Amino acid sequence: MKPKQLMRLYLDECRLHVGILTEALTEARQWQPFTPDSVEHMLKEQIRVLDQVAYRFAKLQDSMGQKILPAILELGQEPITPNATFAEKLNWLERMGALPSAEEWKKLRVARNAIAHEYPDDPELRASAINSFMDCAMRLGMIHEFVIAYLQKHFPEICKGTSDDV
């Protein structure tokens, strides 16, 4: 499959994750901010929604990081070495204007790892982690929009006919 065809598939995959993530975030907003008391008395429905946020966040970040962002470098025929680290690729994408901030992307990765901890004996820490993660999930959605805008500007032929076409 050609790089442009692959990119269209990747865009549709990300669109699915963004759509479900956005729905889950919208539903979870009614419970924010989370407090030590609210995390101690969470309903199963709330846990399911937060699990959906965490799952779709991870899927979106993986799809973007492993597929979309490397494909942008390939499509742009950027002269980055094949053995460049992911951090170097992120910095390159930021310089190109395809990513708003390489450092922010790294922070979102840290947030993703932090939410994996349950903190069963510390409801205050758990509430803080959930609130912070919710902010990060919203920010990842904005980064996705930024990347889509970059693609629409620099590779409009790829975005035509995809679900991300505006």
Description:
- With 166 residues, this protein is an all-alpha fold.
- The chain has a single domain, classed as Four Helix Bundle (Hemerythrin (Met), subunit A), CATH 1.20.120.
- The chain has helices spanning 3-28, 36-40, 44-75, 86-96, 102-115, 123-154, 156-159.
- The protein is elongated and about 50 Å long.
- 29% of the residues are buried.
In short:
The protein has 166 residues and is mainly α.
Unreliable parts: none
Order of helices and strands: HHHHHHH
* CATH class category label: Mainly Alpha
Number of strands: 0
Question: What number of structural domains do the residues give?
Answer: 1
Roughly what fraction of the amino acids lie in strands?
under 5%
Q: Quick one: biggest sheet?
A: none
Shape category: elongated
